[in-house]
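== Sequence and structure of one protein ==
=== Format: two labelled lines per protein ===
==== Data for this protein ====
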Amino acid sequence: MPVRLPQQLVELDGLVIPGGESTTITRLLQSYDLMDKISSLANNGLPIFGTCAGMIVLAKEISDSTIQPIGVMAIKVRRNAFGRQRESFESDLSIPVLGEKPFPGVFIRAPVIEQANSNVEVIARLADNQMVAARQGNLLACAFHPELTDDTRLHKYFLDIIHGER
Protein backbone atom coordinates (compact mmCIF):
# COMPACT_ATOMS: atom_id res chain seq x y z
CA MET A 1 0.00 0.00 0.00
CA PRO A 2 1.23 3.51 -0.68
CA VAL A 3 2.40 5.51 2.33
CA ARG A 4 1.78 9.23 2.20
CA LEU A 5 0.80 10.06 5.78
CA PRO A 6 2.28 9.11 9.18
CA GLN A 7 -0.79 7.10 10.21
CA GLN A 8 -0.22 4.79 7.21
CA LEU A 9 3.05 3.61 8.79
CA VAL A 10 1.32 2.00 11.76
CA GLU A 11 0.61 -1.53 10.58
CA LEU A 12 3.41 -2.09 8.08
CA ASP A 13 5.53 -5.24 8.08
CA GLY A 14 8.10 -3.57 5.82
CA LEU A 15 8.60 -0.43 3.77
CA VAL A 16 10.05 0.15 0.30
CA ILE A 17 11.48 3.56 -0.53
CA PRO A 18 11.61 3.51 -4.33
CA GLY A 19 13.74 5.19 -6.93
CA GLY A 20 12.87 8.65 -8.12
CA GLU A 21 14.32 12.02 -7.20
CA SER A 22 15.97 11.94 -3.77
CA THR A 23 15.61 15.69 -3.19
CA THR A 24 11.87 15.52 -3.86
CA ILE A 25 11.45 12.38 -1.75
CA THR A 26 13.22 13.91 1.27
CA ARG A 27 11.27 17.17 0.95
CA LEU A 28 8.00 15.23 0.91
CA LEU A 29 9.10 13.11 3.88
CA GLN A 30 9.80 16.31 5.81
CA SER A 31 6.62 18.08 4.69
CA TYR A 32 4.42 15.16 5.73
CA ASP A 33 6.25 14.56 9.02
CA LEU A 34 7.49 11.13 7.92
CA MET A 35 11.27 11.55 8.32
CA ASP A 36 11.54 11.06 12.10
CA LYS A 37 8.80 8.43 12.15
CA ILE A 38 10.51 6.29 9.50
CA SER A 39 13.85 6.74 11.27
CA SER A 40 12.32 5.58 14.54
CA LEU A 41 10.66 2.58 12.88
CA ALA A 42 13.94 1.60 11.19
CA ASN A 43 15.83 1.88 14.48
CA ASN A 44 13.17 -0.31 16.11
CA GLY A 45 13.55 -3.06 13.51
CA LEU A 46 11.10 -2.32 10.70
CA PRO A 47 12.59 -3.78 7.50
CA ILE A 48 13.14 -1.08 4.89
CA PHE A 49 14.31 -1.56 1.30
CA GLY A 50 15.66 1.48 -0.55
CA THR A 51 16.23 1.29 -4.29
CA CYS A 52 18.28 3.93 -6.15
CA ALA A 53 16.97 7.21 -4.67
CA GLY A 54 15.66 5.12 -1.76
CA MET A 55 19.25 4.11 -1.00
CA ILE A 56 20.24 7.79 -0.95
CA VAL A 57 17.36 8.57 1.43
CA LEU A 58 18.42 5.78 3.85
CA ALA A 59 22.12 6.77 3.91
CA LYS A 60 23.81 8.46 6.86
CA GLU A 61 25.77 10.69 4.52
CA ILE A 62 25.54 11.98 0.96
CA SER A 63 28.85 13.23 -0.40
CA ASP A 64 27.55 15.51 -3.13
CA SER A 65 24.34 17.00 -1.78
CA THR A 66 22.95 19.19 0.95
CA ILE A 67 19.73 17.21 1.31
CA GLN A 68 19.05 15.65 4.69
CA PRO A 69 18.56 11.90 4.37
CA ILE A 70 16.77 9.76 6.95
CA GLY A 71 20.27 8.67 7.97
CA VAL A 72 19.62 5.17 9.32
CA MET A 73 22.04 3.16 7.20
CA ALA A 74 25.78 3.50 7.90
CA ILE A 75 26.77 4.22 4.32
CA LYS A 76 28.03 7.26 2.44
CA VAL A 77 26.63 7.58 -1.07
CA ARG A 78 27.29 9.71 -4.12
CA ARG A 79 24.33 10.62 -6.29
CA ASN A 80 24.40 10.24 -10.09
CA ALA A 81 27.74 8.45 -9.76
CA PHE A 82 27.74 7.25 -13.36
CA GLY A 83 26.60 10.45 -15.00
CA ARG A 84 23.37 11.70 -16.50
CA GLN A 85 20.40 9.83 -17.95
CA ARG A 86 22.19 8.93 -21.19
CA GLU A 87 24.91 7.11 -19.21
CA SER A 88 22.36 4.70 -17.73
CA PHE A 89 23.33 1.05 -18.21
CA GLU A 90 22.62 -2.57 -17.36
CA SER A 91 25.09 -4.98 -15.77
CA ASP A 92 24.89 -8.57 -14.58
CA LEU A 93 25.70 -8.60 -10.88
CA SER A 94 27.01 -11.32 -8.64
CA ILE A 95 24.85 -11.26 -5.52
CA PRO A 96 25.80 -14.42 -3.56
CA VAL A 97 22.88 -14.09 -1.11
CA LEU A 98 20.57 -14.62 -4.12
CA GLY A 99 22.40 -17.66 -5.49
CA GLU A 100 24.87 -18.24 -8.32
CA LYS A 101 22.80 -16.88 -11.20
CA PRO A 102 23.77 -13.25 -12.04
CA PHE A 103 21.19 -10.59 -11.19
CA PRO A 104 20.29 -8.06 -13.92
CA GLY A 105 21.14 -4.64 -12.53
CA VAL A 106 19.42 -1.67 -14.22
CA PHE A 107 21.26 1.54 -13.36
CA ILE A 108 19.47 4.81 -14.15
CA ARG A 109 21.23 7.97 -12.92
CA ALA A 110 22.37 5.63 -10.19
CA PRO A 111 24.16 6.39 -6.94
CA VAL A 112 27.11 4.40 -5.61
CA ILE A 113 28.14 3.52 -2.07
CA GLU A 114 31.44 5.29 -1.40
CA GLN A 115 31.90 4.03 2.17
CA ALA A 116 30.25 1.42 4.34
CA ASN A 117 30.82 0.91 8.06
CA SER A 118 31.89 -2.48 9.37
CA ASN A 119 28.33 -3.34 10.43
CA VAL A 120 27.17 -3.05 6.80
CA GLU A 121 27.35 -6.15 4.60
CA VAL A 122 28.10 -5.22 1.00
CA ILE A 123 26.14 -7.77 -1.06
CA ALA A 124 26.91 -6.57 -4.60
CA ARG A 125 29.70 -4.79 -6.45
CA LEU A 126 30.25 -3.89 -10.06
CA ALA A 127 33.17 -5.45 -11.96
CA ASP A 128 35.29 -2.38 -11.04
CA ASN A 129 34.58 -3.09 -7.33
CA GLN A 130 32.17 -0.18 -6.77
CA MET A 131 29.63 -1.04 -4.07
CA VAL A 132 26.05 -1.08 -5.38
CA ALA A 133 24.01 -3.06 -2.82
CA ALA A 134 24.23 -3.53 0.93
CA ARG A 135 22.42 -4.80 3.98
CA GLN A 136 22.57 -3.55 7.54
CA GLY A 137 20.35 -5.70 9.75
CA ASN A 138 16.76 -4.89 8.77
CA LEU A 139 17.86 -2.39 6.10
CA LEU A 140 18.49 -3.30 2.47
CA ALA A 141 19.62 -0.86 -0.21
CA CYS A 142 20.64 -1.04 -3.84
CA ALA A 143 21.78 1.50 -6.42
CA PHE A 144 19.81 -0.13 -9.22
CA HIS A 145 16.17 -0.82 -10.08
CA PRO A 146 15.23 -4.48 -9.44
CA GLU A 147 11.59 -3.68 -10.20
CA LEU A 148 12.50 -3.08 -13.86
CA THR A 149 13.44 -6.73 -14.41
CA ASP A 150 11.54 -10.00 -14.37
CA ASP A 151 13.92 -11.33 -11.70
CA THR A 152 12.13 -11.28 -8.34
CA ARG A 153 14.94 -12.74 -6.21
CA LEU A 154 15.92 -9.45 -4.55
CA HIS A 155 12.30 -8.72 -3.65
CA LYS A 156 11.97 -12.27 -2.27
CA TYR A 157 15.14 -11.68 -0.26
CA PHE A 158 13.55 -8.57 1.26
CA LEU A 159 10.39 -10.55 2.06
CA ASP A 160 12.59 -13.12 3.80
CA ILE A 161 14.06 -10.30 5.92
CA ILE A 162 10.53 -9.20 6.83
CA HIS A 163 9.61 -12.76 7.84
CA GLY A 164 12.81 -13.20 9.84
CA GLU A 165 14.13 -15.90 7.54
CA ARG A 166 17.38 -14.09 6.67
About this structure: The mean pLDDT is 95. Helices lie at 22-31, 35-43, 53-58, 153-162. Strands lie at 15-17, 48-51, 59-62, 73-78, 89-93, 103-107, 112-116, 121-125, 131-136, 139-142. The chain has one domain: 15-161.
